[in-house]
Every structure is written in structure tokens, then in C-alpha cells.
Backbone:
């Protein structure tokens, strides 16, 4: 089945790197890649420049400079891409980033959003970190993946899945993580940053349920203690040389603690590996 992937671009090197990562991640899949550039007061920027157009949402507006950039982007990627079943589509939208992303997801039935991550800079005009958090928190229709600017693609052999076992897992919310693991024969390392000596009855049941969901995929369970959540995750990733980290975004629970300061500065802005945000289904 064809994958429909939305790539956010401001035509920077960081966005280009994320696009190349996406092409390699799905190198053997039939895919349609939709490239979105928004131009608005809060437009999607990484390198510190922005477009300040106004007006109603409008697709396929003739913006010659932007069309030239899109054409060059597609030409660059086609030199890199060897799969004839990869199709490219470009979209220029006069809209806020969040509204533009939501509209494209709905319009084209997108499976996943992929964006580049530049991280913290001294420039006040570079707001990618804020945009990353905004997209991760507020896009609820599909998963979101952020690719750090200095990460080149390698097949993810280990994906870290941190959890506190406080939610009852659903197969459908883990489907995309499992799909990537199956595609690349990845191991999923389930990581629990311990808050107490023992799991309670509900947590133990959720752990057993997760084991059942992952039964067709190589997976292991791990624990770290006596450190904060972000310290535990970073230490584990560094120690295992992990290739990706995946979260379930459950508001007012685990991922909320990950995103708000100061944890966002550790893992949102400065992650050393791609971050996959899965959506919690109630």
C-alpha cells in the first residue's frame, strides 16, 4: 500500500536533510511525498528567514521564486532517489504552519509528517524549536517525525520506546512504530525510567499488554532509576547507540513532561536521534 508522507520545507539544508532521510527510510516503498511550504507571519523557517505574505488559504498560487525553489528541490532529490515508485508533489500555502499542515493531512490523507530540526540558536528569528513542539503537540491525525540537522540516514536497528506504563496501549496507536521496525528489522527497546521501586498492578498489566502487541517484533524491556526522565533517556540512547526514539503523545502525562521546559530543551530542541511522536487514541 502506498505511503503518503508530508515533508515540511523552508528550502534550507536542514529541511533537505530531513527529506533525504525520509526517502531513505522508505527507499523500498511506494510513496507519495508532499512538500509543503507555508508563507505567513509565523511561516515555517529553519535558517532564519521568513516570508511575510497575508491572505486566505490558497493552494497552487503562482509564486515564481517559490516555484523555482520547489523545482530545484525536486531535482536534487531525484538525483538521490532510486525508487521509480516515489512520486513528488509540491504545495505552497498562504497559511499558518499548523493550519497548513492540518489542511494537507486532511486533503491528501497523509500517513506521517516529517520535518527537520535545527535546534537552539542565538537568533531570535529562528523559531523551529517552537514550531516543532507546536506540531508535535497539536497534530493529532497522524504521527510526526523530527530529524536533527546533523543526522544522516542509517537503517534504525534499535528504536527506544520510553514509557511509564500508565496507559493502556492500543495496537492502532503503535502501528506506525511497528511498521518502521518491521520494514528495517529493528529491535524495540522499551525503556522505563523508574519513579518507584515496583510497578503497580495496572502498570504491570500494561507492560504485559505491550509485550503481546510487540510479540512479532524483536523487543526488550529495560529500566533506569535515580535520574530524571530526560537524563535516563539520553543516557540509554548514548549507551546503546540507539537510532531513533518514539513516544506516545498523551497530554497531561508522559510526553507533556517531555515537552515543557526545561525538558524540551534537552529532547525537543537538541535530540541526537530522530524523534517519532505517536498519537494516543482514547
Residues:
Amino acid at each position: 500500500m502506498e505511503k503518503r508522507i508530508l515533508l515540511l520545507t523552508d528550502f534550507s539544508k536542514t529541511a533537505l536533510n530531513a527529506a533525504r532521510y525520509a526517502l531513505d527510510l522508505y527507499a523500498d516503498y511506494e510513496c507519495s511525498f508532499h512538500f509543503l511550504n507555508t508563507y505567513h507571519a509565523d511561516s515555517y523557517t529553519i535558517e532564519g528567514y521568513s516570508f511575510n505574505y497575508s491572505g486566505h488559504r490558497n493552494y497552487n498560487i503562482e509564486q515564481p521564486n517559490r516555484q523555482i525553489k520547489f523545482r530545484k528541490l525536486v531535482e536534487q532529490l531525484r538525483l538521490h532517489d532510486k525508487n521509480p515508485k516515489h512520486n513528488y508533489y509540491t504545495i505552497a500555502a498562504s497559511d499558518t504552519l499548523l493550519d497548513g499542515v492540518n489542511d494537507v493531512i486532511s486533503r491528501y490523507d497523509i500517513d506521517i509528517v516529517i520535518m527537520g530540526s535545527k535546534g537552539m540558536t542565538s537568533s531570535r528569528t529562528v523559531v523551529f524549536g517552537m514550531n516543532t513542539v507546536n506540531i508535535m503537540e497539536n497534530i493529532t491525525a497522524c504521527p510526526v517525525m523530527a530529524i536533527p540537522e546533523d543526522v544522516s540516514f542509517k537503517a534504525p536497528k534499535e528504536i527506544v520506546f520510553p514509557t511509564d506504563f500508565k496507559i493502556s496501549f492500543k495496537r492502532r496507536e503503535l502501528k506506525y512504530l511497528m511498521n518502521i521496525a518491521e520494514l528495517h528489522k529493528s529491535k524495540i527497546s522499551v525503556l522505563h525510567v523508574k519513579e518507584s521501586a515496583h510497578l503497580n498492578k495496572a502498570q504491570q498489566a500494561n507492560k504485559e499488554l505491550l509485550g503481546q502487541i510487540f510479540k512479532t517484533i524483536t523487543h526488550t524491556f529495560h529500566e533506569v532509576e535515580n535520574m530524571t526522565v530526560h537524563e535516563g533517556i539520553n543516557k540509554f540512547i548514548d549507551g546503546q547507540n540507539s537510532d531513533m526514539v518514539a513516544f506516545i503523545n498523551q497530554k497531561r502525562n508522559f510526553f507533556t513532561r517531555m515537552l515543557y521546559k526545561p525538558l524540551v530543551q534537552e529532547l525537543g530542541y537538541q535530540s541526537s536521534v530522530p524523534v517519532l511522536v505517536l498519537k494516543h487514541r482514547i
